[in-house]
Specification:
Blueprint (H helix, E strand, L loop, with lengths): L3 H19 L8 H34 L4 H25 L8 H33 L5 H17 L3 H25 L4 H27 L1 H36 L9
Helix pairs in contact: 2-3, 5-6, 5-8, 6-7
Length: 261
C-alpha cells in the first residue's frame, strides 16, 4: 500500500487537472484553483522538511568536524541570523523590505547583494573558460558557433563595426592557413581538393561579407537574433514541452515509478 496509495493520488490529481484544463465548466472550473491552493500548502510543508534535512546534515558535519565543516557552520549561522533579523525587522517596520528596515539597509544591501555580485563575477571566469573550449573550431558546428558568436559580440560592443573587418580578416587567414595545411598533408590531390576549394571560397566571399557586415551590422544582428536564434529557441522549448508531457503521462498512468523510491 505504500506504493499504491501515492500512485492512486497521483492518478486522480493528474486526471482532475487535465479535465479541468479541457473542460472549464462547473464543477471542473474551480478544480485547478483548488489544486493550486493545495500545492502551495503542501510546498510549505516540503520546504520545512527540506530545511530540517539541510540543517540536520550540516549540523552533523559540524559535530563530527568533517571536511568542510566551517562552511556548514557558516550556513547554519547565516540561516538563523537571517531568520531572526528578518522576523524582528518585519515586526518593527511592518514589512521586511521597508525603507526603514534594518534588514534591508544593512543585511540585504550591504551583505547579500555584494556577496551575490561576487559570486556572479567569479562565474564569469568559468564562463570564459567554457567559451574558449567550446569556440575551438574543430568541427563544423563549433565553427558555426564561433562565427555567429563573434558577429553578435562585435555588434554589441562600441566600435564593433570598426574592428569587425580586421577580426574577420585574421579569422579568414587562419582558416585558409589551416585548410591549406590539410590540403598539403592529404594523401592525394583529389583527397585534398575539397580543402583547396573551400580556401578559394573563403577568399572569394571575404570582401562581400565584410562589406555587408560593416554597412548592415544592425540588420545582420537582428536577423541572427530574430530568425536563427528564435527558431532554435522555439525548437528547444517545443522539445522540452513534449518531453514534459510524455513524462507527466508516464507518472500519471504509473509507468514511471522512480519518484516513489
Amino acid at each position: 500500500m505504500k506504493r499504491e496509495i501515492p500512485m492512486i493520488i497521483t492518478f486522480v490529481s493528474g486526471m482532475a487537472i487535465i479535465i479541468a484544463l479541457f473542460v472549464p465548466h462547473p464543477p471542473f472550473g474551480r478544480v485547478e484553483e483548488t489544486f493550486n491552493n493545495w500545492y502551495i500548502i503542501i510546498s510549505g510543508f516540503t520546504m520545512i522538511l527540506g530545511l530540517n534535512s539541510l540543517l540536520g546534515h550540516n549540523l552533523d558535519k559540524v559535530k563530527r568536524k568533517a571536511e568542510g565543516w566551517p562552511y556548514s557552520l557558516t550556513l547554519i549561522l547565516s540561516f538563523f541570523i537571517t531568520l531572526i533579523w528578518g522576523i524582528v525587522s518585519t515586526i518593527r517596520t511592518g514589512h521586511i523590505f521597508a525603507s526603514t528596515s534594518t534588514f534591508r539597509n544593512y543585511y540585504y544591501t550591504y551583505v547579500f547583494v555584494p556577496l551575490q555580485s561576487t559570486m556572479f563575477a567569479l562565474l564569469a571566469f568559468f564562463i570564459a573558460s567554457a567559451a574558449y573550449r567550446a569556440f575551438r573550431a574543430r568541427t563544423v558546428n563549433a565553427t558555426l558557433l564561433l562565427v555567429t558568436a563573434s558577429i553578435i559580440m562585435l555588434t554589441q560592443v562600441p566600435k564593433g563595426e570598426t574592428v569587425m573587418a580586421p577580426v574577420l580578416g585574421v579569422a579568414a587567414l587562419l582558416a585558409v592557413w589551416k585548410l591549406m595545411s590539410e590540403f598539403e598533408s592529404a594523401a592525394s590531390w583529389t583527397a585534398g581538393l575539397p580543402y583547396l576549394l573551400l580556401s578559394i571560397a573563403i577568399v572569394a566571399v571575404y570582401l562581400p561579407i565584410v562589406e555587408v557586415l560593416r554597412t548592415q551590422t544592425t540588420a545582420v544582428n537582428d536577423w541572427i537574433m530574430n530568425v536563427l536564434q528564435m527558431g532554435a529557441k522555439r525548437g528547444i522549448w517545443l522539445g522540452i514541452a513534449l518531453g514534459g508531457i510524455a513524462m507527466g503521462l508516464r507518472i500519471i498512468f504509473g509507468i514511471e515509478k522512480s519518484y516513489l523510491t
